[in-house]
UniProtKB/TrEMBL annotation:
This is Cytoplasmic tRNA 2-thiolation protein 2. It comes from the Eukaryota. Keywords: Cytoplasm, tRNA processing. Plays a central role in 2-thiolation of mcm(5)S(2)U at tRNA wobble positions of tRNA(Lys), tRNA(Glu) and tRNA(Gln). May act by forming a heterodimer with NCS6/CTU1 that ligates sulfur from thiocarboxylated URM1 onto the uridine of tRNAs at wobble position. It holds the Pfam family CTU2. GO terms for cellular component: cytosol. The keyword Chaperone does not apply. GO terms for biological process: protein urmylation; tRNA wobble position uridine thiolation.
Amino acid sequence: MNFVDVNIVLTFYKSSVTMCSVTEEGAVVFETLNQVEPLELKCRKCLIEDGNVVLQKKYVYCKTCFVPMVTHKFRATLGKSKLVNRGERVLVCVSGSQSSVSLLHMIWTGLQQSTYKRLTFDPVVLYIDESVLHNYPHDQKDKIKELFEKYGLTYRIVKFAAAVYSDNCLNEERYIDQYNDKLKNIFNSLSDLTLKEDMLMKLRKYAITKLAELLKCTRIMTAENEHKLSIRLLSNVALGRGSQTSLDIGLAVNNKNGDKTSLVTIRPMRNLSAKEISYYALFNNLDDFMHSNFLTATSEDESIQKTTERFVNDLQVDFPSTVSTIFRTGEKISEKTSAIAYCSLCQGIMDVNMSPSSAMEATKYSKYVSLMGIKALELSLKDVKNEEANQKNCTGCKCKKQDLKEEIIEGLCYACTHIIQNLESLDDLPKDILSKEKERLQFKRMEEQIKDFLL
Ligand SMILES: [Zn+2]
Ligand SMILES: [Zn+2]
């Protein structure tokens, strides 16, 4: 983060926070390094040293006790999952954010230990270069490369568009301009910031899953902290992704992409607060990098995600338990075991066979009423599909494209439907998603044709 950003953040928050400030992404910004001067109070752990850190406005720690405590929390979360085996290849996703550089440092430290505490998996560090979508400093990629070289771990730096569209993205960048254009087309045709950001999240997930498979990794580690996951939890509910919550914030999540796979996503930083991570990064002199999304520097009423973020951040300033309360509540929402269908775009659980009184059906009905007007009273909800089908009996080519879109939408979850409806063309979607959808449609048509002959 550069000096100008720090100053802007401080101007906003100076009045409410005396020592440090919370940024958009939950990272804590310190006014100057000198701010971490010993406090008047003693550390609650060793009771000898003067405190350097105050957590939740009451718990005081000295620097010497704080770093091992944070590391312990990370190791305990990782240990709890019991999912990483000795020698297993783990894809460690580093975006450049404070959380991700801290995750990398913690893993590296764990690998250096000589005792039984040593981490025994085989990490492959990944940085996805999103500079095609956001304006990053031109030397950012080189600086990240430098950082990875310093740690001496296996690493890969892949361009975002190549990861989304190419099956050979690890070895060649021949069609990168073409891929960049396709990716930009997708985001240019989505005018709504909420949808843009939601699509970015889904494509990032898609790219990471694909790269994990290409790099022969069976585990993926991402660095979301408690703060970020709490915001994601509330945003998910607002976006209509409530049933997918455990998939997006859980400790260990199987990536369900239709076929049986052992690819598991682990979030070992999820029990650490943004403040804990910021102090960890500060005490270990870890520099973070610019990491943007479509919501960076936008106003809070332009998107659902940003409104949620501001809501959580504002509450957190006065009530320091806000984030952990939201987070713990989210943990109680368990995954539906009876999931029978997964969305082709986000791999999330689909709400199928909903009862007529569900929120989903109510939304559908309300959309139907606003489309049909007075006719809505004459037809029942069941007739909607027939009516729509009758209206579409036209051979025009534009309609055909629209038909394909409508058919593809049937295989998507509620939130992804909104994204696809707003896309001008489906041609820019990754071809795996399209081919999977076409396969599903073919299967459906075949089923229709032979249904009378089935016993
Ligand atoms: Zn201490
Ligand atoms: Zn979806």
